[in-house]
Amino acid sequence: MEGEFTLNEIMIKEKHEISTNRKKRKGREEKKSIFEMYKSPKTMKDYFFYLKDFLTYVYDGDAPIESEEIIELMTGIEKSDIEDYLAHLMDEREMKKTSINKVISSLKSLYKELEKNGYENPFKYIGLFKTSRNLDNILKVSFDDIKNILKNYKVNGEKEYRNTLILHTLFYTGMRSQELLSLQFKHVLKRDGEYFVKLEKTKSGREQYKPLHNFLIKKFDEYRNYLTNVYGINEESLEEKFLFFSSFEKNKPLSYRALYNVIQDMGKVINKNISPHNIRHAIATELSLNGADLIEIRDFLGHSDTKVTEVYINAKSLIEKKVLEKIPIQSIDDDF
Asked: Which residues contact 34 (CB under 8 A, 6 or more apart)?
């Protein structure tokens, strides 16, 4: 992308000694990185995408924003610039509050790092918009829907077989997309008779271990045997391979776009427009329906806060329609 900048390219000297190609350049010796947050590469890429959009809106100029000027442009922001930008997102772009909150959260994180280096933080007192979680999206796919997909999805070869395992894995682990795409066979571990999967690319950036359901272990074993037979390699050679690949020979994992298209195509089997994240919602709701408590669901999904998890408890109540039991049996049209 033209004008794209990366974390490693954004450097800083001392305060007020920033170089930018829009003003006279100054020396840049003894540089050091400023944005050294403990975040995954995908998260950081998203953050800088939002930052570039924000700065491009606030500042004039036809030339793409360069990495060398990012810090100075960030430090020139005032609260009124932020308010104008948020109004622009809401009124002109007609973005939903949930989407705007993602932008705000990203920019707040970046400016928090800037603040640690002695700069003013105009986002410090900018709050998020109050929103309610979309239960329609949470309840979009059920356990029965997933069973129907797997029952009717045509497996004609290697790719379709891989796709069914993708769906099984998303459901039985509740993984996020990036966690699933980075899985290699070596990440499936056995300790004291129990199987776990090691997640390296998590949202928090920290390694996590997730227990595996016996049904999924069996599916993994079948898939492993299938690949060793098809490609004529031993199990040791398979360890470094990605579970869900776009090219087995090149050991290239699927992209997020490819994963999204896989789930979209599988959703068409039951005439539903679904995404990988809908499968995560499905297992969380199913856990709630089967008696898992808030803490258990939080830990299973890898949420940092139970507030995020509470929506599945609400979904459970909606599905079970418990509130209907409290309505008098007598019809409102009957004589009292």
From this structure: 10, 11, 12, 71, 113, 114, 117
How far is residue 299's CA from residue 296's CA, in Å, rounded to a whole number? 5
CATH 1.10.150 describes domain 7-116: yes
pLDDT in tens, 209-236: 888 999 999 999 999 999 999 999 998 9
Per-residue burial over 91-100, b if 16 or more Cβ lie within 10 Å, else e, is eeeebeeeeb
β pairing state of 245-247 and 208-211: unpaired
pTM of this structure: 0.60
CB 141 within 8 A of CB 278: yes
Say if 7-116 and 136-322 have the same CATH topology: no
Q: What is the three-class DSSP state of 124?
A: coil
CATH classification of 136-322 is 1.10.443.10, yes or no? yes
Nearest to 308 by CA among 336, 330, 333, 277: 277
What amino acid occupies position 190? K
Q: Using one digit for the tens of pLDDT, what is the confidence trace for 38-63?
A: 567 777 888 889 999 999 999 988 88
For residue 32, give the H/E element and its range: strand 32-33
Ordered by start, the domain boundaries in the chain are 7-116, 136-322
> Mapping DSSP to helix (H, G, I), strand (E, B) and coil, where does residue 87 land?
helix
**Three-class secondary structure assignment of 144-172:** HHHHHHHHHCCCCCHHHHHHHHHHHHHHH
Identify the bridge partners of residue 12 per DSSP, sorted by sequence position.
32
- What gap in Å lies between CA 302 and CA 296, rounded to an integer? 10
Q: List the one residue out of 127, 33, 20 whose CA is nearest residue 72.
A: 20
